[in-house]
Amino acid sequence: MAVRELTDILNLSHVQVTGYDKGPNRIEVFLEHEKKTARCPACGVRSSRKHSEKAIEVRDLSCFGRDVYLVLPRRRFKCRVCGKPFAERLSFVEFGMRFTKRYEQYIYDQCIERSHAAVAKHEGVSDTVVRKIYDSYAVACVDPQGRPKAIRVLGIDEISMRKGHRDFVCVITDIDRRRVIEVLDDRLKETLVAYFEALPRSVRNSIKYVSIDMWEGYYQAVTEALPKRVKVVVDRFHVMKNLNDALTKCRREIQRTMSKEDRDELKGLRWILVKNQDNLDKEEKAKLKQMYMKCPELKTCHKLKEDFRSIFETETSRVKAKAKLQAWKRRVRKTGLKSLEPFLTTLDNWEQWILNYFSSGKITNGAVEGINNKLKLIKRRAYGYRNNGNFRQRVLVECGGQE
Fold first, then answer.
1. What is residue 275's DSSP assignment?
2. DSSP labels for 249-268?
3. Are residues 280 and 215 in contact, defined by beta-carbon separation less than 8 angstroms?
């Protein structure tokens, strides 16, 4: 291949190819500068007084399965105005780095889907180099000035940083845009209040609804730091999770009273009982039917769960939904199932904000469920994070989106 063609292919400004050498694992491309002068970074005057020259290697994008290195002189000039020596700047290399900008961009893009350690191993560079490149590009993406100018529906949720539901961080989302806008170090009320108070007044005034789970600290922070007209909506999927947890406890108590043969026959009911009936496959439906015949109490539990879910699926009126919930609670109390009583207490305590679901256009955190799954993947990819700041940076880069 002619060196002129190779110069065109490389597409690097102010240099031209003089030759190349290829080995089994790497290609060296030799370059020279087109101009004999360089511009002083201090005063902007071009100088031709060369102070020193030293050959350097710059890593570029790999080609044909080989690592590519650009070999070119690093020149230092002496400014004729300032009288001080300066190193020549290259438009395709960040000052002080030994990689082309496009190779750094490639490293950064690889880090979006893979761990730093995996990228470093694949590229044959150190973890420190990969992290430095990732951090420099990520900082540009995670721009504090890039916060949304208006948020109609704010979502507040948490994710555990350690096994056993420990060390929670609080994830703030813009539900309409399905993007994460902040990750707080913990889910304490004080932390959330400080975050709200730091938001520009125009952003706080733009918020109409806040979707939360039934964590008292979230509710207190919203009512203390956001305008009084903001409506709190308890996320229906968290309500459903509470009910499913109560049903699981109820199922265990019922099965303890059964004979070993009956327990063995009804083994594997846990997920069938809590799974939406519409999503059951043929085998699961057969197992459900068997449960109905074998244990009337579990049949009652399942029917109650499905009827409760139906209220949220089909009802659009807040008034009618309230009436149906009251009727549903009366049915539960008539069953005498003690394991469901704590859930009834939860409904009584949070009823007003649960019912806001029906008057808010059915707002939920369900729209960002995909984000929650991605957060777990980010954690798993790095085998956990010791530093919440690194986790925050990753989340905002991969789940923050752009305005």
1. S
2. HHHHHHHHTS-HHHHHHTTT
3. no
CB atoms within 10 A of CB 224: 13
The model's pLDDT over 229-251, given as tens digits with 9 standing for 90+, comes to 999 999 999 999 999 999 999 88
Across 25-29, 42-46, 78-82, 116-120, the highest mean pLDDT is recorded for 25-29
Question: Can you name the residues that pair with 293 across neighbouring β-strands?
Answer: none
Look up tokens 């993406």; give the residue: 141
In eight-state DSSP terms, residue 230 is P
The 3-class secondary structure across 75-105, one letter per residue, is EEEECCCCCCEEECCCCCECCCCCEEHHHHH
Looking only at Cα atoms, what is the longest distance across the chain? 97
- Write down the pTM of the prediction: 0.73
For residues 180 and 97, give the distance between their C-alpha atoms in angstroms, rounded to a whole number: 32
**Average pLDDT over every residue of 201-213:** 94
The letter for the amino acid at 129 is: V
Task: Write down the H helix ranges in 211-295.
Answer: 216-225, 236-256, 260-265, 269-274, 282-294
Q: What pLDDT was estimated at residue 149?
A: 79
Residues contacting residue 78 through CB under 8 Å, at least 6 positions apart? 47, 49, 50, 51, 84, 85, 86
Contact indicator for 55, 69 with CB cutoff of 8 Å: no
Cα–Cα distance measured from residue 393 to residue 385, given in angstroms and rounded to the nearest whole number: 11
Topology given in CATH for the domain delimited by 145-235+364-399: Nucleotidyltransferase; domain 5 (3.30.420)
Distance CA 71, CA 2 (A): 17
* DSSP secondary structure letters along 134-183: HHHHHHHHS-GGGS-S--SEEEEEEEEEETTTEEEEEEEEETTTTEEEEE
Q: Is the dihedral of CA 7, 13, 16, 17 positive or negative?
A: negative
Span 19-74, pLDDT tens digits: 999 899 999 999 999 999 998 988 889 998 888 899 999 999 999 889 999 999 99
Of the two residues 372 and 116, the one the predictor is more confident about is 116
Instruction: Provide the β-strand partners of residue 68.
Output: 27, 60
Distance CA 180, CA 380 (A): 19
Record the tokens describing residue 358, joined without a space: 């029906």
- If DSSP codes are grouped into helix, strand and coil, which group holds residue 10? helix
- In the structure, what pLDDT confidence band is assigned to residue 116 with cuts at 50, 70 and 90? confident
For 382-399, write each residue's pLDDT tens digit. 555 566 677 888 888 878
Q: Where are the domains of the chain?
A: 3-98, 145-235+364-399, 236-359
